[in-house]
Amino acid sequence: MSNDPLLSIRDLRTYFHTDDGTVKAVDGVSFDIDRGETVCIVGESGSGKSVTSESITQLIPMPPGEIAGGEVIFDGTDVTTLSDDELRDLRGGRIGHVFQNPQGALNPVYTVGYQIREAIDAHQDLTKRESRQKAVSLLESVGIPEAGNRVDDYPHEFSGGMKQRVVIAIALACEPDLLIADEPTTALDVTIEAQILELFRDLQAAFDTSIIFITHDLGVVAEVADRVVVMYAGKVMETGTAEQIFENPAHPYTRALLECLPGQSGGLEPIPGSLPSPINPPSGCRFHPRCEYAREACRIGEQPPVYGFDGDDDDTGDSDGDGDHRVSCIHYEGGDDELPDTGEFSEIGQEPGTGLHTGGGE
Ligand code: SF4
User: Fold this and answer.
1) Is 336 exposed, middle or buried, given 0-12, 13-18 or 19+ CB atoms closer than 10 A?
2) Closest residue CA from atom 7 of ligand 1
3) Which three-class secondary structure state does DSSP give residue 15?
């Protein structure tokens, strides 16, 4: 098996052309996903995380959407160059999707077994009997009790959590190499959410599937992530292993998100200010109007490049030496590994705003 990443996104730009101007929803995003790895993309609603995931298989409506630049290399092939037929084969084949609302993902007039078999039959040449057996076995693998009987039930006969399990079974029907799950637990209550997160962990162990998990909730990230991509206003602010992000966060935005978690010293304090306009984002660092560490240089030019972060002072470029911990903040230019005291550059300060919006979807 190749050691190359399963998915490599380079300088991805996804724009939407509207009457008010061009929305740069994803603006120069780069990250990799290894085989068998779970990568969480986290950020406030409107940060561009869902559009990033939808751009991978070009699920965005075009027009008004456009992949304006960059590459999405999936197992050696640039997905942005594929024909519509090739993209259809990829979706529901080697790349499966699980969306936020299981109700909307299931057709109420067909049995769940029919809908799973539809996904199987679109990509595999099985007899009707084999296809049904596989549907039952998929329902078993996602934890549906008495799957042999439930396979002939309709979606309305399942609870919300069980419906999401069915949607996951459909996504797994073709044994995808990559599963993209966009806020898959947001519509579920906390107990069911915990069960579904456990299911994702179990399925990954069983199938060795790579998973992209989109969420606004760092509590969910802590449960499932191997690696984390923190997005803000269409840009990547920080990437690192889950351990690096939670134990040694570098970017002021990541730190602010963590302080919103229950039990932290900030105690559910929202981040002051709100996301900038995606049509006219601020110059310089897009986070500067809300950043307590901002200085004059943060307002000028483009978003800072990503720098290796050496939180352990071990001369390796990041805190565990694997080169994975990277941060887009001028304070880390030149190998610095600490933020200055807050208030040092207080001439900018924070603009009042609506606070952190933690709703799902974008
Ligand atoms: Fe804050 Fe400046 Fe760093 Fe942006 S570059 S996160 S504004 S300190």
Assistant:
1) middle
2) 288
3) strand
Name the average pLDDT for the chain: 84
Q: How far is the CA of 291 from the centre of ligand 1 (A)?
A: 6
**CA-atom Rg of the chain in angstroms:** 21
Are 327 and 309 in contact by the 8 Å Cβ rule? The answer is: yes
Task: Examine the pLDDT at 358 and tell me if it is beyond 60.
Answer: no
**Bridge pairing between strands 7-18 and 21-33:** antiparallel
| Pair 307, 239: CB distance under 8 Å | no
Model confidence pLDDT, tens digit, residues 145-204? 999 999 999 999 999 888 988 988 898 888 889 999 998 887 777 888 888 888 888 888
Tokens of 45: 């609603």
Mutation pick for ligand 1 pocket among 254, 257, 292, 298 (CB with most ligand atoms within 8 Å): 298
Task: Report in angstroms the alpha-carbon separations of 85 from 82, 89, 165.
Answer: 8, 6, 28
For the chain, how many residues are written? 362
Ligand 1 centroid distance, CA of 323 (Å): 21
42-71 pLDDT, tens digit per residue, is 998 889 999 999 999 888 888 999 999 999
Q: Which atom of ligand 1 is nearest to the CA of 339?
A: 8
**Any idea what DSSP says for residue 102?**
H
CA distances from 283 to 123, 273, 286, 288, 303 (A): 47, 16, 7, 9, 8
Query: Ligand 1 centre and the CA of 263: distance in Å?
Result: 26
For 215-246, the DSSP string reads ES-HHHHHHH-SEEEEEETTEEEEEEEHHHHH
Ligand 1: distance of its center to the CA of 296 in Å?
A: 10
User: What is the band of 123 on the pLDDT scale with cuts at 50, 70, 90?
Assistant: confident
pTM flag (> 0.90)? no
Instruction: Name residues contacting ligand 1 (CB within 6 A).
Output: 251-252, 285, 287-288, 291, 293-294, 298, 304, 329-331
Taking residues 304-319, report their average pLDDT.
Answer: 64
Q: What is the position in ligand 1's atom list of the atom closest to the CA of 330?
A: 5
Atom of ligand 1 nearest to the CA of 251: 6
Residue 317 has pLDDT above 50, yes or no: no
Does 84 score more than 70 pLDDT? yes
